[in-house]
């Protein structure tokens, strides 16, 4: 499967036969509106597994200060400037610590991402990591990914018809994704982020 990230095609393998088999086993088999396809389920499980590993890496790979800053900014939705004022440090010190922390987490999970997706180009790890990071911290703050995706689009004034056309999907599918009725594929999540011109981690985390 190829997904477009920043106008560049990345080749990502389809879920394995084992993943699809597990998806079929957990499905009720009625193929109702609430059901995911086996491929959708397998992709979601990959993302969920990676998001859980990110949480584990935060607890085990970061210093106490780095961990605190990550949680304050992404869990508690505080701006770096506010965190800096509360801790008696400069905003740049907070930003540098957060950047260093994310680099540590990414490095700890780099080979997992390569293995999961059979990547040939190590540069392709970054967008997939950012996607999983967004899912992890959207969930951590009690929000849900569909609401975040809708919020990004609405705040940037992008009509659903325009977004759906840019993604190459039906408007009804986009509505289903934003309503939480359809689990988006990785390329759809990344595509929405790209359409909304999400380039800052903080912006992505806030949806």
Tell me the layout of helices and strands:
Blueprint: E1 2-5, E2 8-11, H1 17-26, H2 38-61, H3 64-75, H4 80-87, H5 91-117, H6 125-140, H7 145-155, H8 160-167, H9 171-178, H10 186-195, H11 201-206
Antiparallel strand pairs: 1-2
Structure characteristics:
single chain, 207 residues, mainly alpha, 434 Repressor (Amino-terminal Domain), 2 domains, 11 helices, 2 strands, 68% helix, globular
Structure commentary:
There is one protein chain. This protein has 207 residues and is mainly alpha-helical. The protein has 2 domains: 36-142; 144-207, 434 Repressor (Amino-terminal Domain), CATH 1.10.260.40. Helices cover 68% and strands 4% of the residues. The protein contains 11 helices and 2 strands; from the N terminus they run ββααααααααααα. The protein has helices spanning 17-26, 38-61, 64-75, 80-87, 91-117, 125-140, 145-155, 160-167, 171-178, 186-195, 201-206; strands spanning 2-5, 8-11. Strands 1-2 form a two-stranded antiparallel ribbon. A hairpin with a 2-residue loop joins strand 1 (2-5) and strand 2 (8-11). Helix 2 (38-61) crosses helix 6 (125-140). The longest helix is centred in the middle third of the chain and has 27 residues, at 91-117. Residues 198-207 have low confidence and may be disordered.
């Amino acid at each position: 499967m190829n997904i477009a990230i920043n106008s560049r095609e990345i080749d990502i393998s389809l879920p394995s036969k084992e993943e699809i088999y597990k998806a079929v086993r957990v499905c009720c088999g009625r193929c109702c509106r609430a059901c995911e396809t086996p491929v959708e389920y397998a992709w979601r499980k990959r993302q969920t597994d990676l998001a859980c590993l990110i949480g584990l890496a935060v607890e085990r790979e970061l210093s106490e200060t780095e961990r605190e800053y990550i949680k304050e900014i992404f869990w508690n939705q505080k701006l770096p400037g506010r965190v800096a004022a509360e801790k008696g440090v400069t905003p740049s010190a907070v930003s540098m610590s957060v950047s260093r922390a994310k680099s540590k987490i990414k490095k700890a999970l780099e080979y997992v991402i390569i293995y999961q997706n059979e990547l040939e180009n190590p540069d392709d790890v970054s967008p997939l990591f950012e996607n999983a990071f967004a899912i992890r911290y959207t969930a951590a703050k009690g929000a849900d990914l569909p609401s975040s995706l809708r919020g990004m689009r609405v705040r940037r004034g992008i009509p659903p018809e325009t977004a759906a056309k840019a993604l190459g999907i039906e408007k009804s599918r986009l509505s289903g994704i934003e309503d939480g009725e359809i689990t988006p594929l990785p390329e759809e999540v990344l595509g929405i982020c790209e359409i909304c011109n999400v380039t800052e981690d903080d912006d992505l985390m806030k949806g």
